[in-house]
Protein backbone atom coordinates (compact mmCIF):
# COMPACT_ATOMS: atom_id res chain seq x y z
CA UNK A 1 0.00 0.00 0.00
CA UNK A 2 1.16 3.52 -0.73
CA UNK A 3 1.86 5.87 2.11
CA UNK A 4 -0.59 8.64 2.91
CA UNK A 5 1.86 11.54 2.84
CA UNK A 6 2.82 13.83 0.02
CA UNK A 7 6.04 12.95 -1.67
CA UNK A 8 8.03 14.32 -4.53
CA UNK A 9 7.55 17.97 -5.37
CA UNK A 10 8.44 17.73 -9.02
CA UNK A 11 5.85 16.20 -11.30
CA UNK A 12 7.62 13.30 -12.96
CA UNK A 13 11.28 13.20 -11.86
CA UNK A 14 11.71 9.66 -13.16
CA UNK A 15 11.29 10.53 -16.81
CA UNK A 16 14.90 11.22 -17.71
CA UNK A 17 16.31 8.07 -16.14
CA UNK A 18 13.59 5.60 -17.05
CA UNK A 19 14.52 2.68 -19.23
CA UNK A 20 12.01 -0.12 -19.59
CA UNK A 21 13.07 -3.64 -20.27
CA UNK A 22 10.87 -5.02 -23.04
CA UNK A 23 9.41 -8.11 -21.45
CA UNK A 24 5.89 -9.25 -20.66
CA UNK A 25 4.72 -8.40 -17.17
CA UNK A 26 1.45 -8.19 -15.25
CA UNK A 27 0.52 -5.94 -12.34
CA UNK A 28 -2.79 -5.91 -10.45
CA UNK A 29 -3.97 -2.88 -8.47
CA UNK A 30 -7.08 -2.17 -6.38
CA UNK A 31 -8.70 1.21 -5.69
CA UNK A 32 -11.86 2.35 -3.89
CA UNK A 33 -14.22 4.87 -5.38
CA UNK A 34 -14.73 8.21 -3.64
CA UNK A 35 -17.55 10.67 -3.09
CA UNK A 36 -16.85 14.38 -3.13
CA UNK A 37 -18.04 16.28 -0.07
CA UNK A 38 -16.93 19.57 -1.67
CA UNK A 39 -17.21 19.16 -5.42
CA UNK A 40 -14.95 19.38 -8.44
CA UNK A 41 -17.00 20.79 -11.31
CA UNK A 42 -15.25 22.58 -14.20
CA UNK A 43 -11.76 22.61 -15.68
CA UNK A 44 -9.10 25.26 -16.24
CA UNK A 45 -7.39 23.09 -18.85
CA UNK A 46 -9.09 20.34 -20.86
CA UNK A 47 -5.97 18.70 -22.26
CA UNK A 48 -4.19 18.30 -18.91
CA UNK A 49 -7.51 17.83 -17.09
CA UNK A 50 -6.81 20.58 -14.58
CA UNK A 51 -9.68 21.48 -12.24
CA UNK A 52 -10.92 25.04 -11.73
CA UNK A 53 -11.31 24.43 -7.99
CA UNK A 54 -10.06 22.15 -5.26
CA UNK A 55 -12.30 19.41 -3.86
CA UNK A 56 -12.61 17.24 -0.75
CA UNK A 57 -13.78 13.64 -0.75
CA UNK A 58 -14.01 10.42 1.20
CA UNK A 59 -12.63 7.22 -0.31
CA UNK A 60 -14.97 4.26 0.25
CA UNK A 61 -14.24 0.71 1.43
CA UNK A 62 -15.61 -2.28 -0.48
CA UNK A 63 -16.72 -0.29 -3.57
CA UNK A 64 -13.65 -0.95 -5.66
CA UNK A 65 -12.12 -1.47 -9.07
CA UNK A 66 -9.52 -4.21 -9.45
CA UNK A 67 -7.43 -3.76 -12.57
CA UNK A 68 -4.91 -6.09 -14.08
CA UNK A 69 -2.56 -4.77 -16.73
CA UNK A 70 -0.26 -6.91 -18.85
CA UNK A 71 2.31 -5.08 -20.91
CA UNK A 72 3.33 -7.36 -23.71
CA UNK A 73 5.85 -6.71 -26.54
CA UNK A 74 3.82 -9.17 -28.67
CA UNK A 75 0.72 -6.92 -28.67
CA UNK A 76 0.10 -4.59 -31.61
CA UNK A 77 -2.51 -2.46 -29.87
CA UNK A 78 -4.14 -1.94 -26.47
CA UNK A 79 -7.08 -4.06 -25.29
CA UNK A 80 -9.58 -3.19 -22.57
CA UNK A 81 -12.09 -5.45 -20.86
CA UNK A 82 -14.52 -4.16 -18.21
CA UNK A 83 -16.67 -6.48 -16.09
CA UNK A 84 -16.16 -9.32 -18.57
CA UNK A 85 -17.01 -7.25 -21.68
CA UNK A 86 -14.51 -6.33 -24.38
CA UNK A 87 -14.75 -2.52 -24.68
CA UNK A 88 -14.39 -0.55 -27.90
CA UNK A 89 -15.22 3.04 -28.86
CA UNK A 90 -15.15 5.73 -26.17
CA UNK A 91 -14.27 3.59 -23.11
CA UNK A 92 -11.35 1.98 -24.98
CA UNK A 93 -10.32 5.39 -26.37
CA UNK A 94 -10.12 6.84 -22.85
CA UNK A 95 -7.91 3.97 -21.65
CA UNK A 96 -5.67 4.14 -24.75
CA UNK A 97 -5.26 7.91 -24.32
CA UNK A 98 -4.23 7.35 -20.71
CA UNK A 99 -1.80 4.54 -21.59
CA UNK A 100 -0.24 6.82 -24.22
CA UNK A 101 0.60 9.29 -21.44
CA UNK A 102 2.16 6.50 -19.38
CA UNK A 103 4.09 5.19 -22.41
CA UNK A 104 5.31 8.72 -23.13
CA UNK A 105 6.68 9.00 -19.59
CA UNK A 106 8.24 5.52 -19.77
CA UNK A 107 9.77 6.14 -23.21
CA UNK A 108 8.16 2.99 -24.64
CA UNK A 109 5.78 4.28 -27.34
CA UNK A 110 5.19 0.84 -28.93
CA UNK A 111 4.74 -1.30 -25.81
CA UNK A 112 1.01 -2.04 -25.72
CA UNK A 113 -1.08 -3.54 -22.94
CA UNK A 114 -4.08 -5.69 -22.09
CA UNK A 115 -6.18 -4.10 -19.34
CA UNK A 116 -8.80 -6.16 -17.51
CA UNK A 117 -10.94 -4.29 -14.95
CA UNK A 118 -13.69 -5.38 -12.63
CA UNK A 119 -15.91 -3.13 -10.49
CA UNK A 120 -17.31 -4.49 -7.24
CA UNK A 121 -20.33 -2.19 -7.58
CA UNK A 122 -22.96 -1.90 -10.34
CA UNK A 123 -22.26 0.65 -13.09
CA UNK A 124 -25.64 2.37 -12.67
CA UNK A 125 -25.24 2.70 -8.90
CA UNK A 126 -24.36 6.37 -8.97
CA UNK A 127 -20.88 5.57 -7.72
CA UNK A 128 -18.06 6.95 -9.82
CA UNK A 129 -16.35 4.03 -11.53
CA UNK A 130 -14.00 6.43 -13.36
CA UNK A 131 -12.55 7.51 -9.98
CA UNK A 132 -11.65 4.00 -8.80
CA UNK A 133 -11.02 2.86 -12.39
CA UNK A 134 -8.37 5.43 -13.30
CA UNK A 135 -6.81 5.30 -9.83
CA UNK A 136 -6.35 1.52 -10.15
CA UNK A 137 -5.17 1.87 -13.76
CA UNK A 138 -2.67 4.64 -12.91
CA UNK A 139 -1.19 2.56 -10.11
CA UNK A 140 -1.04 -0.70 -12.09
CA UNK A 141 0.21 0.93 -15.31
CA UNK A 142 2.87 3.04 -13.56
CA UNK A 143 4.27 -0.11 -11.99
CA UNK A 144 3.97 -2.28 -15.13
CA UNK A 145 5.73 0.35 -17.26
CA UNK A 146 8.50 0.73 -14.68
CA UNK A 147 7.72 4.26 -13.48
CA UNK A 148 8.86 4.97 -9.95
CA UNK A 149 6.16 7.32 -8.64
CA UNK A 150 5.37 8.59 -5.16
CA UNK A 151 1.70 8.98 -4.17
CA UNK A 152 1.56 12.67 -5.16
CA UNK A 153 2.90 11.95 -8.65
CA UNK A 154 0.56 9.00 -8.99
CA UNK A 155 -2.33 11.27 -8.04
CA UNK A 156 -1.32 13.81 -10.73
CA UNK A 157 -1.09 10.95 -13.23
CA UNK A 158 -4.51 9.51 -12.27
CA UNK A 159 -5.98 13.02 -12.75
CA UNK A 160 -5.12 12.79 -16.46
CA UNK A 161 -7.61 9.89 -16.69
CA UNK A 162 -10.34 11.47 -14.56
CA UNK A 163 -10.22 14.40 -12.14
CA UNK A 164 -11.91 12.50 -9.31
CA UNK A 165 -9.45 9.58 -9.72
CA UNK A 166 -6.64 11.76 -8.33
CA UNK A 167 -8.39 11.55 -4.94
CA UNK A 168 -8.81 7.74 -4.90
CA UNK A 169 -5.02 7.33 -4.69
CA UNK A 170 -5.43 8.15 -0.99
CA UNK A 171 -7.62 6.58 1.66
CA UNK A 172 -9.99 8.26 4.11
CA UNK A 173 -10.64 11.99 3.78
CA UNK A 174 -8.76 13.55 0.88
CA UNK A 175 -8.24 17.03 -0.54
CA UNK A 176 -7.47 17.73 -4.19
CA UNK A 177 -5.48 20.88 -4.88
CA UNK A 178 -6.30 22.69 -8.12
CA UNK A 179 -2.66 23.80 -8.44
CA UNK A 180 -1.31 26.83 -10.25
CA UNK A 181 1.43 25.35 -12.45
CA UNK A 182 0.58 25.44 -16.18
CA UNK A 183 1.84 21.85 -16.58
CA UNK A 184 -0.41 20.59 -13.77
CA UNK A 185 2.34 19.11 -11.62
CA UNK A 186 0.80 20.60 -8.47
CA UNK A 187 -2.79 19.59 -9.31
CA UNK A 188 -2.94 16.49 -7.14
CA UNK A 189 -4.49 15.21 -3.96
CA UNK A 190 -3.27 14.54 -0.43
CA UNK A 191 -4.78 12.85 2.60
CA UNK A 192 -6.48 14.91 5.32
CA UNK A 193 -7.40 12.04 7.66
CA UNK A 194 -6.88 8.24 7.45
CA UNK A 195 -10.08 6.17 7.21
CA UNK A 196 -9.85 4.75 10.75
CA UNK A 197 -9.76 8.25 12.27
CA UNK A 198 -13.40 9.09 11.54
CA UNK A 199 -15.63 6.06 10.91
CA UNK A 200 -18.61 7.78 9.28
CA UNK A 201 -21.06 6.02 6.95
CA UNK A 202 -22.28 6.96 3.50
CA UNK A 203 -25.72 5.62 2.56
CA UNK A 204 -26.24 5.63 -1.22
CA UNK A 205 -29.89 5.74 -2.35
CA UNK A 206 -30.01 4.42 -5.92
CA UNK A 207 -32.98 6.10 -7.64
CA UNK A 208 -32.91 4.46 -11.10
CA UNK A 209 -31.18 1.64 -12.99
CA UNK A 210 -30.86 3.82 -16.11
CA UNK A 211 -27.39 5.02 -17.11
CA UNK A 212 -26.88 8.78 -16.98
CA UNK A 213 -27.45 10.76 -20.15
CA UNK A 214 -24.81 13.49 -19.77
CA UNK A 215 -21.31 12.56 -18.63
CA UNK A 216 -19.56 14.60 -15.91
CA UNK A 217 -17.01 15.76 -18.48
CA UNK A 218 -19.70 17.07 -20.86
CA UNK A 219 -21.88 18.46 -18.05
CA UNK A 220 -19.09 20.46 -16.45
CA UNK A 221 -18.02 21.89 -19.83
CA UNK A 222 -21.59 23.10 -20.46
CA UNK A 223 -21.87 24.64 -16.97
CA UNK A 224 -18.44 26.22 -17.25
CA UNK A 225 -19.23 27.75 -20.65
CA UNK A 226 -22.85 28.84 -20.24
CA UNK A 227 -24.02 29.10 -16.61
CA UNK A 228 -24.17 32.72 -15.37
CA UNK A 229 -23.95 31.36 -11.79
CA UNK A 230 -20.80 29.30 -12.30
CA UNK A 231 -18.28 32.03 -11.39
CA UNK A 232 -20.22 32.77 -8.19
CA UNK A 233 -20.01 29.09 -7.21
CA UNK A 234 -16.26 29.09 -7.90
CA UNK A 235 -15.89 32.28 -5.83
CA UNK A 236 -17.68 30.69 -2.86
CA UNK A 237 -15.71 27.46 -3.15
CA UNK A 238 -12.59 28.36 -1.17
CA UNK A 239 -14.71 29.15 1.92
CA UNK A 240 -16.44 25.76 1.55
CA UNK A 241 -13.08 24.00 1.22
CA UNK A 242 -11.66 25.75 4.25
CA UNK A 243 -14.71 25.01 6.44
CA UNK A 244 -14.91 21.39 5.31
CA UNK A 245 -11.19 20.84 5.88
CA UNK A 246 -11.41 22.25 9.42
CA UNK A 247 -14.59 20.23 10.11
CA UNK A 248 -12.83 17.01 9.06
CA UNK A 249 -9.78 17.71 11.18
CA UNK A 250 -12.08 18.63 14.10
CA UNK A 251 -14.49 15.69 13.41
CA UNK A 252 -17.44 18.10 13.31
CA UNK A 253 -20.14 16.31 11.30
CA UNK A 254 -22.69 19.11 11.58
CA UNK A 255 -20.35 21.67 10.01
CA UNK A 256 -19.12 19.21 7.37
CA UNK A 257 -22.69 18.17 6.52
CA UNK A 258 -23.87 21.77 6.24
CA UNK A 259 -21.02 22.72 3.89
CA UNK A 260 -21.47 19.51 1.90
CA UNK A 261 -25.17 20.15 1.23
CA UNK A 262 -24.78 23.82 0.31
CA UNK A 263 -21.80 23.14 -1.99
CA UNK A 264 -23.71 20.38 -3.79
CA UNK A 265 -26.91 22.43 -4.12
CA UNK A 266 -24.88 25.37 -5.45
CA UNK A 267 -23.31 23.11 -8.08
CA UNK A 268 -26.73 21.81 -9.15
CA UNK A 269 -28.08 25.39 -9.24
CA UNK A 270 -25.27 26.25 -11.68
CA UNK A 271 -26.22 23.24 -13.81
CA UNK A 272 -29.90 24.29 -13.86
CA UNK A 273 -28.92 27.76 -15.08
CA UNK A 274 -26.81 26.32 -17.92
CA UNK A 275 -28.00 26.82 -21.51
CA UNK A 276 -29.58 24.43 -22.29
CA UNK A 277 -30.43 23.57 -18.66
CA UNK A 278 -28.86 20.53 -17.10
CA UNK A 279 -30.97 18.59 -14.59
CA UNK A 280 -29.53 15.31 -13.31
CA UNK A 281 -32.31 14.70 -10.76
CA UNK A 282 -35.53 12.71 -11.00
CA UNK A 283 -38.63 12.79 -8.77
CA UNK A 284 -37.14 10.26 -6.38
CA UNK A 285 -34.03 12.43 -5.93
CA UNK A 286 -36.25 15.19 -4.54
CA UNK A 287 -38.18 12.72 -2.36
CA UNK A 288 -34.89 11.43 -0.87
CA UNK A 289 -33.70 15.00 -0.18
CA UNK A 290 -36.96 15.58 1.72
CA UNK A 291 -36.51 12.30 3.62
CA UNK A 292 -33.00 13.36 4.71
CA UNK A 293 -34.28 16.75 5.83
CA UNK A 294 -37.15 15.00 7.67
CA UNK A 295 -34.74 12.68 9.48
CA UNK A 296 -32.60 15.64 10.47
CA UNK A 297 -35.61 17.63 11.72
CA UNK A 298 -36.37 14.67 14.00
CA UNK A 299 -32.82 14.62 15.40
CA UNK A 300 -30.84 12.20 13.17
CA UNK A 301 -27.44 13.62 12.19
CA UNK A 302 -27.53 13.11 8.40
CA UNK A 303 -26.70 15.30 5.39
CA UNK A 304 -26.78 14.58 1.65
CA UNK A 305 -24.76 15.16 -1.47
CA UNK A 306 -25.59 14.45 -5.13
CA UNK A 307 -23.18 14.04 -8.04
CA UNK A 308 -23.76 14.16 -11.79
CA UNK A 309 -26.71 11.79 -11.57
CA UNK A 310 -30.03 11.26 -9.78
CA UNK A 311 -28.75 9.18 -6.84
CA UNK A 312 -28.46 10.63 -3.34
CA UNK A 313 -25.60 9.96 -0.94
CA UNK A 314 -26.30 10.54 2.74
CA UNK A 315 -23.49 11.04 5.26
CA UNK A 316 -24.15 10.04 8.87
CA UNK A 317 -22.66 8.45 11.98
CA UNK A 318 -22.29 4.63 12.16
CA UNK A 319 -24.98 4.61 14.90
CA UNK A 320 -27.49 6.36 12.61
CA UNK A 321 -26.71 4.31 9.47
CA UNK A 322 -29.36 1.59 10.02
CA UNK A 323 -32.08 4.18 10.68
CA UNK A 324 -31.03 6.29 7.67
CA UNK A 325 -30.90 3.26 5.41
CA UNK A 326 -34.39 2.10 6.47
CA UNK A 327 -35.81 5.58 5.92
CA UNK A 328 -34.27 5.93 2.46
CA UNK A 329 -35.28 2.38 1.47
CA UNK A 330 -38.86 3.35 2.33
CA UNK A 331 -38.91 6.30 -0.11
CA UNK A 332 -41.05 5.31 -3.14
CA UNK A 333 -38.79 5.01 -6.19
CA UNK A 334 -35.61 4.05 -4.34
CA UNK A 335 -34.29 0.95 -6.11
CA UNK A 336 -31.81 -0.06 -3.42
CA UNK A 337 -29.42 1.37 -0.87
CA UNK A 338 -25.72 0.71 -0.32
CA UNK A 339 -23.88 1.52 2.92
CA UNK A 340 -20.14 2.22 2.81
CA UNK A 341 -17.46 3.25 5.30
CA UNK A 342 -14.25 5.22 4.65
CA UNK A 343 -11.62 2.96 3.06
CA UNK A 344 -7.96 2.68 2.07
CA UNK A 345 -6.19 4.25 -0.89
CA UNK A 346 -4.94 2.48 -4.01
CA UNK A 347 -2.61 -0.50 -3.61
CA UNK A 348 -0.73 -2.96 -5.80
CA UNK A 349 -1.85 -6.57 -5.35
CA UNK A 350 0.97 -8.26 -7.24
CA UNK A 351 4.25 -6.89 -8.47
CA UNK A 352 6.20 -8.00 -11.54
C1 LIG B 1 -19.88 15.57 -9.78
O1 LIG B 1 -13.90 13.18 -12.32
O2 LIG B 1 -15.88 12.18 -13.54
O3 LIG B 1 -18.58 13.64 -9.28
O4 LIG B 1 -12.31 14.71 -14.86
O5 LIG B 1 -13.99 14.86 -16.68
O6 LIG B 1 -13.38 12.61 -15.75
P1 LIG B 1 -13.54 14.10 -15.48
O7 LIG B 1 -14.75 14.23 -14.43
P2 LIG B 1 -15.10 13.39 -13.15
O8 LIG B 1 -16.09 14.43 -12.42
C2 LIG B 1 -16.59 14.22 -11.14
C3 LIG B 1 -17.69 15.20 -10.88
C4 LIG B 1 -18.46 15.00 -9.60
C5 LIG B 1 -17.84 15.77 -8.46
C6 LIG B 1 -16.58 15.20 -7.86
O9 LIG B 1 -16.37 13.97 -7.86
O10 LIG B 1 -15.80 16.02 -7.33
Q: What ions, cofactors and ligands are bound?
A: ligand DP6
Q: What oligomeric arrangement do these chains adopt?
A: single chain
Q: Approximately what portion of the residues adopt beta-strand conformation?
A: 15-25%
Terminal CA distance: 15 Å
Mean pLDDT level: 93
Number of helices: 8
- Total strands: 14
Characterize the largest beta sheet: strand count, sense, and whether it forms a barrel.
Answer: 8 strands, mixed
Low-confidence stretches: 1-19
Q: Provide the structure class.
A: alpha+beta
**Global geometry:** globular
* Cα-based radius of gyration, to the nearest Å: 20 Å
Query: What is the N-to-C order of secondary-structure elements (H for helix, E for strand)?
Result: EEEEEEHEHHEEEHHHHEEHEE
Amount of helix: 25-40%
Notes on the protein architecture:
The structure is a single chain. By secondary structure, the protein is α+β, with helices and mostly antiparallel strands. 34% of the residues lie in helices and 23% in strands. It has helices at residues 89-106, 129-144, 151-161, 216-226, 230-249, 253-272, 283-297, 321-329, and strands at residues 25-38, 43-45, 50-51, 55-71, 79-82, 85-86, 113-119, 173-176, 189-193, 201-206, 302-305, 312-316, 336-340, 347-350. Strands 1, 4, 5, 6, 7, 8, 9 and 14 form an 8-stranded mixed beta sheet that branches. A 4-stranded antiparallel beta sheet has the order 11-12-10-13. Strand 11 (302-305) and strand 12 form a beta hairpin. Helix 1 runs parallel beside helix 2, helix 2 crosses helix 3 (151-161) and helix 5 packs antiparallel against helix 6 (253-272). It starts with 24 loop residues before the first strand and ends with a strand. 51% of the residues are buried. The model is unreliable at 1-19 (pLDDT under 50). Bound molecules: ligand DP6. The site of ligand DP6 has 15 residues, from helix 4.
Amino acid sequence: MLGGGQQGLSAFPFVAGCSMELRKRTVVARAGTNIALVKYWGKRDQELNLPRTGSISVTLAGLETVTSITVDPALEQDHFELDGRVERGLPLGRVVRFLEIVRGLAGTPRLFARVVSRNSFPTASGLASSASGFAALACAAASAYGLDLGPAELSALARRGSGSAARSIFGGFVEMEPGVAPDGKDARAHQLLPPSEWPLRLVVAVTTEAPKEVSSTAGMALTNDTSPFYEAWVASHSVDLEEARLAIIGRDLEVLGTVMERNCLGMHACMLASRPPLLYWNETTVAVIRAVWGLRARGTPVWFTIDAGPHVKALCTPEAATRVRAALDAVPGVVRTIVAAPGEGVRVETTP
